[in-house]
Write the structure tokens for this entry.
Amino acid sequence: MSALLVRDLAQVVSPAGGRAPLRGAALRELRVVENGYVLCEGGRISRVGGMSGLGRLNGDVRELDGRGRAALPGLVDCHTHACFAGDRVGEFELRAGGAGYEELHAAGGGILSTVRATRAAGEDGLAAALRRHRAWMRACGTTTWEAKSGYGLDRDTELAQLRAVRDAGGAPTWLGAHAVPPEFEDADSYLDFALGEVLPEAVRIAEAADVFLERGAFDALQARRYLEACREAGLALRLHADQFTEAGGIGLAIELGARSVDHLEATGPGGVGLLAASDVAAVLLPVAALFLGRSMPPARALVDAGAIVALATDFNPGSAYCESLPVAMSLACTQMGMAPAEALAACTVNAAHVLGRADRVGRVEPGYAADLVLLDVPDWRYLAYHLGGEHVAVVIEGGDVAWER
Ligand code: NIG
Ligand code: FE
């Protein structure tokens, strides 16, 4: 494998604030090298520095011109539902006319309508849909990503989702407790099935388990039962919680030692304080808040209080039809009071922490995976500044150009 030298870059940018996960002021610390280079060898970054210190390189080295460009770590999307079939464009129109997201769900639409489409797609159809979505994510600069099941809710489709994610290079999360499918009478009898019949197979593929703890989905007791069984089976734990109501998700996440609690649009000061004093990451999904017209999660309060804050898209067909971490970063800065540097660390280093990969991805530093995003502008902050702008020019994965505009 030949080496790749990205040279004459206007900026090389990397989060710098010590060991992951980053909290408080450390979230804002960046290392910016002007007129710099990045050398990639064997799929990893081997050297980073200013052009004046580059010297002569021996051996077979491909070169990429970085003039006028800023390089930053490949982005890490730690919360997506990218493995789905079909769409919900009809519901989108209904919501635009005033229908509520929870109301559509209660009427058998919402998540359950994507369950019908996903079950009907077949394994090949599902894999093809995921490849398409994954390509969209890459074109926005995402090089490491998680995707959840939760649109099968039967054994075969849940496992097909997890395999599709794994085979496409993502981190699979078993969202076996997303909704109660219509063939079950209630949440408890569905959980009997999911934990008895699906978990033993899911645990061979998934890295983590997730639950939707919310009115109309699973309550705190049911979430506890699901998560305890998943933890026992060896999975890391995640929760969708406080999206519409505070229902004890944060306390449960802390008690069970979960990796993260995600959403938090409804979280008040008590929840902020609990999270700040814990090792559970707060994964904020501002696109979902925007898309559903809800208030934004309390990002500024969480960062200032010292919580571990990460940022993700929540890409899914119902509540966040958006695969762009740069858009999430823009919203973080314009709607949630985060600094651009905080937003960047939240969807690189801290998101990598949520996925258990902080030693490998999320920084432009020797030893890290050679996953880079090159922007067609000389200032990396355009990524958040230009709302909906398309400045990702080149995406490098494992030292190879994976995508070019
Ligand atoms: O994170 N809230 C629950 N799950 C997803 C939405 C899934 C859907 O609407 O299809 C979310 O917002
Ligand atoms: Fe989600």
Summary: The radius of gyration is 21 Å. Residues 103 and 110 are 9 Å apart (CA to CA).
